[in-house]
Amino acid sequence: xxxxxxxxxxxxxxxxxxxxxxxxxxxxxxxxxxxxxxxxxxxxxxxxxxxxxxxxxxxxxxxxxxxxxxxxxxxxxxxxxxxxxxxxxxxxxxxxxxxxxxxxxxxxxxxxxxxxxxxxx
Length: 121
Fold this sequence. Notes:
Structural class: alpha/beta
Helix content: 25-40%
């Protein structure tokens, strides 16, 4: 499933792809995750959790920007996933995005992997 901004001047700034692999929901995030686009990521994360997929693997290899709103979506998903016995695993963060996580201390509460293969094991 691919999602794009609908009815927004920000069309295409964030693209989301979702697939299930075993007990993990892999969510690929591409573009800019900010206060204009965060709800586009919130929806598939909530959908996965509602379906019982509590192990969320977020592929950040194409995520170019993340602000505090985007970070809060991921932190909220982490809390919900952990409450359901799972977690959020971040994969392949680009340096600019990794820096946001480092500055805020959020890198200490997420499991970060170099590749999707590592995250799935």
